[in-house]
Amino acid sequence: MLLDSAFSLFVLGIFAGAASQRMMTKVPEVPNPLHRRVCHTVTTDKGKTDTICKHVNNIIFANPMASQFWVDGTTIPEVDFDVGDSWSGLLPISADPNETRKLFFWFFPPGPEGSFDDLILWMNGGPGCSSLEGFLQENGPFQWGVGTAKPVPNVNSWTNLSSVLWVEQPVGTGGTPNITDEDDLSVQLIGFLQQFLEVFSELKGKKLYLSGESYAGQYVPWIASHIFENPTTLNLSLQGIWIADPDLGWHVVQAQIPVVDFVRKYQNVFAFNQSFMAQLDSIAKKCNYEGYYEKFATYPPAGSLPLPGNSTKADPGCDIWNIVFQNALVKNKAFNAYRIFDTFPVLWDVLGFPGSFEDVQLSPVYFNRTDVKTAIHAPPDVDWTLCTNKDVFPHGDASLPSAFSVLPNVIEKSVRTVIIHGLADFVLIAEGARIVIQNLDYFHSIIRIRSWIKRTPGNGLQGFRTPIIDDSFLVDGVGSLGTAHTERGLTFLEVELSGHMVPQFSPLAAFQSMAFLMGFRTTP
Ligand SMILES: *[C@@H]1O[C@H](CO)[C@@H](O)[C@H](O)[C@H]1NC(C)=O
Ligand SMILES: *[C@@H]1O[C@H](CO)[C@@H](O)[C@H](O)[C@H]1NC(C)=O
Ligand SMILES: *[C@@H]1O[C@H](CO)[C@@H](O)[C@H](O)[C@H]1NC(C)=O
Ligand SMILES: *[C@@H]1O[C@H](CO)[C@@H](O)[C@H](O)[C@H]1NC(C)=O
Ligand SMILES: *[C@@H]1O[C@H](CO)[C@@H](O)[C@H](O)[C@H]1NC(C)=O
Ligand SMILES: *[C@@H]1O[C@H](CO)[C@@H](O)[C@H](O)[C@H]1NC(C)=O
Ligand SMILES: *[C@@H]1O[C@H](CO)[C@@H](O)[C@H](O)[C@H]1NC(C)=O
């Protein structure tokens, strides 16, 4: 079951859903502090000058409830610089005054260069992993990276682009997690956003971008589909989605079929001997993985792509991912499935999850510290770990993979869609994402929302029609760093040297592609 464990390598309480009634029961009569920043004069790229406080003044929230969420940017433990004003805490997922289910959020207004007209929402995957991972180690305004001694400002913070909202979801700890599928999850998140907009109503009407990675390849398209299909439920204007190393289709496609080609491509990293490689080849042949990519990932594709065997995960004896992973750990104790280039020793991680596994730390996990919880209005009684040990889908996720259900329609409704993939990711392999995309059926988009199923006609074309060109992803100041391909609103990017968490491992590539999604540049 290693394949499963690959997606739950992250395994353990997030703040979301802690049944603290403290927040919403009574609105304290606290005067709204003025979170005004010093105004700077900035020179825009067109050579004009502008003052930043023009945007930031807007972010003085009129609702007195906002002030209870305010975080003083000079008081965040271990952060020895001012990160500016932000707002965090728990909000319920419905307007029911007795609602106990809450989600934890951390909201940052745009930095000096960011747009106040836009709002990015970020979600990590798991399922059940905290989006504070992304906050602290991927795209937040300050970063505390694996193997480093203290937090530093993040020059590639997505707050340079616009406001950003990190949300721990779905409801995990506290109340009993009882969601059955992506519809339940979407209803929770949208319910939370409604409550969020009541408190932070100055954000109403903004352009919304949903982003995330890994299992958020399920969350993001499903939530987007709910928003597009119910346009009046949320006063935000959804523009597009950005997903990194996403879980989109069947595991056998994204984490079995491409394994042997991947091991050959990186043979110097895996350091397997020839007899072992021959064993892998024979398994790949027996399981119909061999030659699958060459035969079926054609441009355009020949038709609907078949499963290689009888299972959407792996047939008996065909879990080649697990065989490779176990043997990679023999050669390299620090083998990191999330970024294969890591070597011994395993580095210290302030979030307690430095590589393939959770690590026992002598020092406290950052978000589990009482002083940190106090600073960000997190419930003091919840033990925070990067991923919850409660299954947020107690009976599994009953939704179809996004690629076979809502994704085609979401691509069509979005102004732009970005799927980005690290080429050094072994948890999910980029060639697998290519196969999933070549199997995307733009004609049949199934939208299942609660009790009804709707088929929307797409534009009738499956997959990309023209091939992906090598070295076509040009990153500013770097040069080519992978591939870029856009057809019919979908941009697929592959990033050399990046592992699973693209904003962490290739922050500039992530930033630039997000700027493209938001229309701040014309090329990815
Ligand atoms: C909330 O709970 C209280 C106490 O159980 C109950 O009296 C009240 O009717 C509930 N309110 C709603 C809106 O359900
Ligand atoms: C983000 O903003 C900071 C401060 O204005 C700037 O130094 C940095 O270069 C910006 N980063 C990007 C990727 O634009
Ligand atoms: C989950 O439990 C809550 C009460 O804790 C209930 O209101 C809700 O309907 C349940 N959801 C599902 C999908 O069962
Ligand atoms: C949505 O928000 C905008 C901006 O605050 C506001 O002008 C508009 O009236 C709102 N629309 C609805 C339907 O509430
Ligand atoms: C070749 O690799 C396999 C798997 O790592 C190992 O079990 C075997 O002992 C190796 N053979 C030699 C000769 O090193
Ligand atoms: C798939 O199922 C069929 C029929 O049950 C069986 O003949 C075949 O061997 C199975 N294939 C694999 C790869 O297990
Ligand atoms: C979090 O803190 C609690 C209480 O201090 C402790 O029992 C628990 O082991 C901590 N969890 C982690 C992962 O450090």
Task: Provide an overview of this structure.
With 524 residues, this protein is of the alpha/beta class. It starts with a helix and ends in a 7-residue tail after the last helix. Mean pLDDT is 87; it is low at 1-13, 17-39, 52-58 and 447-453. It has 17 helices and 18 strands. The radius of gyration is 22 Å and the shape is globular. Helix 5 crosses helix 6 and helix 6 (216-229) packs across helix 14 (407-413). It has helices at residues 2-7, 22-25, 53-56, 132-139, 182-199, 216-229, 251-255, 259-265, 267-270, 274-286, 292-296, 320-331, 370-375, 407-413, 430-438, 502-505, 507-517; strands at 41-43, 49-51, 70-71, 86-92, 102-108, 115-123, 142-143, 152-153, 162-168, 207-213, 237-244, 416-422, 444-449, 452-457, 474-475, 479-480, 482-487, 490-495. Bound molecules: 2-acetamido-2-deoxy-beta-D-glucopyranose (7 copies).
